[in-house]
Design goal:
Layout lengths: L37 H15 L7 E5 L3 H4 L9 E4 L5 H11 L4 E7 H7 L1 H10 L3 E7 L2 E2 L5 E2 L22 H8 L3 E6 L3 H13 L3 E7 L15 H7 E3 L1 E6 L14 E5 L5 E6 L9 H13 L3 E8 L6 H5 L11 H4 L3 H11 L1
Parallel strand pairs: 1-2, 1-3, 3-4, 4-8, 7-8, 9-13
Antiparallel strand pairs: 5-6, 7-13, 10-12, 11-12
Helix pairs in contact: 1-7, 3-5, 4-5
The structure holds thiamine diphosphate, iron/sulfur cluster and magnesium ion.
Protein name: 2-oxoacid:ferredoxin oxidoreductase subunit beta
InterPro entries: 2-oxoacid:Fd_oxidoreductase, THDP-binding, TPP_enzyme_TPP-bd
Keywords: Oxidoreductase
């Protein structure tokens, strides 16, 4: 069975958010993933982030490809728009939906197989175009759904469950996202909800292409000794560059950390990110330095997590293309077909 409905009953005293919704209102069906799968923790973090942001579920469109990771939108935001597309094609389907209606919040959920192999071209083009979305890769280093083959993000030298050593070089999607011009780039770990929830909230508030790579161990096929995507390995090699507090535009700014170690970043919608820097010299706004930092730590076997890059004045695809503000389905016949004189003008501009 791939779909199990949850009972609707809940405790009357469950906390409510500003809209009067409980946490339960942001959940989906019961997960059918393996018990302990990292992907379920990411689902929980997305639910928590949307609950805390008091997002209206009908304003969210969740779009995915194919894989265990791409199944997860069924398990969160049961009252949102959803489309489970084709393997590796989430970015183009999402881009189309976004161009037709920019008023929704777009959550793209994908896997490392989905985005780093068959969908690599789609991943690249939607980030370089600046589609306003949160692009989450649930990265376990394997094709979980098809029984644990190495994916393109598996590190060279890592060992499969059957003892085979991966001889291919790995693709680092965070490094690629930085090179491709994504305006918000972060990496986190499914086992670190304290870090992941504020990153997701900040990415939702970000107006542009926000990419989050979440290391998410596959307990069935990639959680053994010799794997570099197992819970134990990531816990031992995680180098958190910063800790984030997300402050929505409606909340007063109260920053508890020590002065001098906190950087406040204001986002387009008035929300603020309070970053407690763990690496004191880390510059969040320097794309080239972020790449260098990432590669330097990777060469030492460390996995850098945290918010790695953010552009303060991001632009999205709609601004680049100067598209009409209103969703296309609200335009009337006259707006869609402005007549002969408008056509003559266009033709004249092309001569
Ligand atoms: C066009 C196409 N090719 C291959 C497959 C088979 N297939 C389904 S899921 C998958 C890989 C999924 O890996 P990933 O995206 O990492 O997700 P995970 O299951 O690990 O979360 C593959 C190869 C498919 N469904 N469609
Ligand atoms: S096979 Fe791996 S990725 Fe898929 S549900 Fe099981 S633990 Fe998760
Ligand atoms: Mg995978």
């Amino acid at each position: 069975m791939t779909y199990i409905a949850k009972p609707k009953f809940h405790h009357p005293d469950l906390p409510k958010n500003a809209l009067g919704y409980t946490h339960r209102d942001y959940e989906g069906s019961v997960s059918t993933l393996c018990a302990g799968c990292g992907h379920d923790s990411i689902t929980a973090a997305i639910i928590q982030a949307c609950f805390e942001l008091s997002i209206e579920p009908h304003r969210v469109a969740k779009i995915s490809g194919i894989g265990c990771s791409s199944k997860t939108p069924t398990y969160f935001l049961g009252n949102s728009h959803g489309f489970n597309s084709v393997h590796g094609r989430m970015p183009s389907v999402l881009t189309g939906a976004n161009l037709a209606n920019r008023d929704l919040i777009y959550l793209g959920v994908s896997g490392d197989g989905d985005s780093a192999s068959i969908g690599l071209g789609q991943f690249a083009h939607c980030l370089r175009r600046g589609v306003n979305m949160v692009y989450i890769v649930e990265n376990n280093g394997v094709y979980g759904l098809t029984k644990g083959q190495f994916s393109a993000t598996a590190d060279r030298g890592s060992k499969s469950k059957r003892g085979v050593i991966n001889t291919d070089n790995s693709i680092d999607l965070v490094a690629m996202a930085l090179q491709l011009g994504a305006s918000f780039v972060a990496r986190s770990f499914s086992g670190d909800k304290q870090q992941l929830v504020p990153i997701i909230k900040a990415a939702i508030a970000h107006k542009g292409a926000a990419f989050i790579d979440v290391i998410s161990p596959c307990v069935a096929f990639n959680n053994h000794a010799g794997s570099t995507k197992s819970f134990d390995f990531v816990r031992e090699h995680n180098e958190a560059v910063n800790r984030l507090d997300f402050i929505s535009s409606r909340m007063p700014i109260e920053v508890k950390q020590e002065p001098g170690t906190v950087e406040i970043v204001e986002q387009h919608d008035g929300s603020r990110l309070a970053l407690r820097k763990l690496a004191a010299d880390y510059d969040l706004h320097d794309r080239t330095a972020a790449l260098g930092f990432l590669q330097h730590h990777a060469s030492k076997g460390q996995i850098v997590t945290g918010l790695l890059y953010v552009e303060e004045e991001p632009q999205d695809l709609h601004e680049h293309l100067r598209t009409v503000r209103a969703p296309l389905n609200t335009l009337n016949a006259k707006e869609l077909c402005p007549g002969q004189s408008a056509l003559d003008k266009i033709n004249a501009s092309l001569r």
